[in-house]
């Protein structure tokens, strides 16, 4: 009998009972999309969280841009404020995907949301897909606001070459997936929802400095640049600069080129590694609970 055939049962008298149809559960991806819709509804109901998520990276870019609004590296039309605005896209993704997701999962675990969710058809992978959907949607809004700040206040020019937007597309997808999965995995490091922001903000902020997001690459020691090359933030910042800044800017990168191939490999590796970490460390309940 195949999985799609109805089952029949024979009673004590030999009579055959009414066949019961086989119920097919939705696929993991479909459940994940449904979970993503729920996550988005919950997110947009929290207006303070929406404003903070969208506005915070743009606010930092605005402050840095106003402070360092001067020509950059002798490149015509390029200012340091534009460099900071573009690099801040990477911070916006880290803030939304790594910090916010990690803290949110710690809260869900503590208040029993994950424990209740475990009793539904939602598998761990479906839950991960839902979080990625949430991050993708909220990240697009944050990037749109960042670019608006760059264009309106600092003279940033959006690319007209379709190849650059194609680069932006795969770079954004890999960055969102990698950072979301790492945020899910890192949520297990926090012992409580109260400690989660401190646990997750420390590595996130540190990486912004050593990866050339909050400071310029030419001000960083070689040792910091070497350390940063093992983590995704450095490659995210470099990748987004390659999309929105002129090619003459690539001389300021550590390797003197945009390294798109290496960027894709590193971020892809972090996507795979992040998924493995999630599957190994993800917990539906708090430590010590059943």
From TrEMBL:
<feature type="domain" description="ABC transmembrane type-2">
    <location>
        <begin position="48"/>
        <end position="285"/>
    </location>
</feature>
<feature type="transmembrane region" description="Helical">
    <location>
        <begin position="264"/>
        <end position="282"/>
    </location>
</feature>
<dbReference type="InterPro" id="IPR051784">
    <property type="entry name" value="Nod_factor_ABC_transporter"/>
</dbReference>
<dbReference type="InterPro" id="IPR047817">
    <property type="entry name" value="ABC2_TM_bact-type"/>
</dbReference>
<comment type="similarity">
    <text>Belongs to the ABC-2 integral membrane protein family.</text>
</comment>
<feature type="transmembrane region" description="Helical">
    <location>
        <begin position="198"/>
        <end position="216"/>
    </location>
</feature>
<feature type="compositionally biased region" description="Low complexity">
    <location>
        <begin position="1"/>
        <end position="22"/>
    </location>
</feature>
<feature type="transmembrane region" description="Helical">
    <location>
        <begin position="80"/>
        <end position="107"/>
    </location>
</feature>
<keyword id="KW-1003">Cell membrane</keyword>
<keyword id="KW-1133">Transmembrane helix</keyword>
<feature type="transmembrane region" description="Helical">
    <location>
        <begin position="128"/>
        <end position="156"/>
    </location>
</feature>
<protein>
    <recommendedName>
        <fullName>Transport permease protein</fullName>
    </recommendedName>
</protein>
<keyword id="KW-0813">Transport</keyword>
<keyword id="KW-0472">Membrane</keyword>
<dbReference type="Pfam" id="PF01061">
    <property type="entry name" value="ABC2_membrane"/>
</dbReference>
<dbReference type="InterPro" id="IPR013525">
    <property type="entry name" value="ABC2_TM"/>
</dbReference>
<feature type="transmembrane region" description="Helical">
    <location>
        <begin position="168"/>
        <end position="186"/>
    </location>
</feature>
<feature type="region of interest" description="Disordered">
    <location>
        <begin position="1"/>
        <end position="24"/>
    </location>
</feature>
<keyword id="KW-0812">Transmembrane</keyword>
<feature type="transmembrane region" description="Helical">
    <location>
        <begin position="49"/>
        <end position="68"/>
    </location>
</feature>
